Amino acid sequence: MFMIYFIIKSYENYKYIFVASIxxxxxxxxxxxxxxxxxxxxxSYILMKKQVRNWNxxxxxxxxxxxxASISPYMLLKNYxxxxxxxxxxxxxxxxxxxxxxxxxxxxxxxxxxxxxxxxLATIVNKLFFSGFIKLVYSYIFVIISPLLILFFVLGIFSLxxxxxxxxxxxxxxSIFVWFIFHIPIYGSFTYPRYLYPTVPxxxxxxxxxxxxxxxxxxxxxxxxxxxxxxxxxxxxMKASINAVNSIEEDPMNHExxxxxxxxxxxxxxxxxxxxxxxxxxxxxNTKVVGSxxxxxxxxxLQPPFTKDINSSLQALKDLEVxxxxxxxxxxxxxxxxxxxxxxxxxxxxFKKVYDNYNSSSERKVRIYKIR
Length: 372
Known about the structure:
- A seven-stranded mixed β-sheet has the order 2-3-4-1-5-7-6.
- The protein is built from 14 helices and seven strands.
- Helix content is 55%, strand content 9%.
- α7 packs across α8 (147-162) and α7 (121-145) crosses α9.
- Residues 244-255 have low confidence and may be disordered.
- It has 372 residues and is an alpha/beta fold.
């Protein structure tokens, strides 16, 4: 929001756009999709050409230089830990079929050229339109905006076009448009609403414009109407927030993590974890990202391999030289082809059980096997 504020301020003085470029860089450090904020700043400034005094194309180059300089310490740190300036872990695999495949240690991330050449037009359209566009629209309507605000959001967009000043509407509309368009291919693989959270303040601003537009056109009862809407909205929002906090607190994944402490203290080598790498690494002072996993002490954690059947999974574990595997009866659902291993009789003889909490009161049932 501060970035958008300084974009708007640049109508008064073009130098404010350089401040917006610095803030865009800070957004990129927080999360990789923050890189799109540079496009928001650039596109907004281009569209503002006629309204900004002393506007010049050289400003666009200066903005890119400022952005690059601001983000360079983060990129150098990334290169130090990952061996590459542009390694974004599993999130680099947005052209793959799913996030699970992208984060798997045995997956090769394709380039855009490889993706286009190895897939049919129907597959590409399906990924971009059905897997990307449709899911993105659904998430915005039912998760981010919510049905409660959708009417006011639409009215707010209408009000934005017909009533608001140019210096306000350009950065707001550009932000929503850029964020939506450039997340279509990403959402085809990573259907995570958290990617859309940065647009929530903008959505609330637009929805507020919609509420104001409605109230202005219901003269006599506008104050009562606005009060009722705000009361309902606040009540529902508070209930949703409380439920979200409670769900996190009550999630068995976040409780009774003796298995994670035991793993950190007793195991060495490569360990496949279906869920809870962070719970293990929490027990080490110094940790770092290694590929799609983490390293701490003498331990390296990995996501399970992505395969089509159990035999391929077992072979992939050997190829990756995995020493241990943590089988969690709930989290293993992310790899359906390996779900049979939850039943002890299905575990191959090459696995030696070293930890089992099934006889404890723990809600999270875990067995740990050494792969011999």
